[in-house]
């Protein structure tokens, strides 16, 4: 495929007006391979502590291998997007709200029309993978495909344990300093994610009931050494979505795009090209 001259794409800001009880938001976003106007779009949905900057160059590499355009953005509370106010706690259905409201509003704001959405792909990691699944279930006739990397479809003890351990690292170790490189308001990012996952009410969160609505091609990927989840997550996806394909990565933890990118990229490229 033809390769474009590499450069760092500019980060833009989209203003989302207040709607149905949601406050107005400003979301930072970035186009990758913007010049490929005839190519399908891949939307990248980051993990629970992620942002545009935290993806680094992995989305660009995926887009290059597939010849696609890419869209990356920081969800509210992360990166340079509208921060979470200190006294605001994410609700139990916070991922549903991102899938059903915020992502569609962003697509509207930046002019991705119905025709483009019908062949759009969504790649999500961790919480972003869960949001990708919820979006695909809500819009079953308007998506080219989904790739969910280390997604959560219900809450496991191992997830809660790892997040509790992250609290200690954030308060007593160097995790806060590391994350501050990627978020304008680092406490907004960390405690928004940390507080809801450790909320006892969140233990009942479970999205398996909506998975059967997903009609588009779906690849679910999990590392055998994932400290935040087990193979039960993607096995549950397969049990509810007969056409789902699974990739289980050996010697890989929760972040395959950082820990085993070659295996991850190969699985993604093979899957997308098979469709």
UniProtKB/TrEMBL annotation:
The keyword tRNA processing does not apply. Residues 40-198 form the AB hydrolase-1 domain. SUPFAM superfamilies: alpha/beta-Hydrolases. One of its GO terms (molecular function) is hydrolase activity. InterPro entries: AB_hydrolase_1, AB_hydrolase_fold, AB_hydrolase_sf. GO terms for cellular component: membrane. Pfam families: Abhydrolase_1. Keywords: Hydrolase. It comes from the Bacteria. This is Alpha/beta hydrolase.
């Amino acid at each position: 495929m033809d390769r474009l001259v590499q450069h760092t794409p500019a980060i833009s800001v989209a203003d989302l007006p207040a709607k149905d009880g949601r406050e107005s938001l400003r979301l930072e976003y970035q186009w990758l391979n913007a010049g490929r106007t005839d190519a399908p779009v891949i939307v990248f949905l980051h993990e629970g502590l992620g942002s545009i900057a935290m993806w680094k160059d992995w989305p660009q590499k995926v887009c290059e291998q597939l010849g696609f355009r890419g869209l990356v953005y920081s969800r509210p509370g992360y990166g340079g997007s509208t921060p979470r106010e200190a006294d605001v706690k994410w609700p139990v259905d916070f991922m549903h709200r991102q899938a059903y409201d915020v992502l569609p509003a962003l697509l509207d704001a930046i002019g991705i029309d119905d025709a483009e959405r019908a062949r759009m792909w969504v790649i999500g990691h961790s919480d972003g993978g869960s949001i990708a699944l919820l979006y695909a279930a809500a819009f079953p006739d308007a998506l080219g495909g989904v790739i969910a990397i280390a997604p959560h479809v219900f809450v496991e003890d191992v997830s809660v344990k790892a997040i509790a351990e992250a609290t200690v690292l954030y308060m007593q170790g160097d995790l806060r300093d590391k994350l501050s490189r990627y978020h304008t308001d680092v406490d907004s990012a960390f405690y928004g994610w940390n507080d809801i996952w450790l909320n006892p009410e969140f233990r009942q969160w479970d999205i398996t009931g909506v998975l059967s609505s997903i009609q588009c091609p779906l690849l679910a990927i999990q590392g055998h050494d994932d400290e935040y989840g087990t193979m039960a997550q993607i096995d549950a996806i397969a049990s509810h979505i007969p056409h789902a394909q699974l990739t289980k990565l050996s010697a890989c933890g929760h972040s395959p795009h950082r820990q085993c990118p070659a295996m991850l990229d190969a699985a993604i490229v093979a899957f997308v090209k098979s469709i």
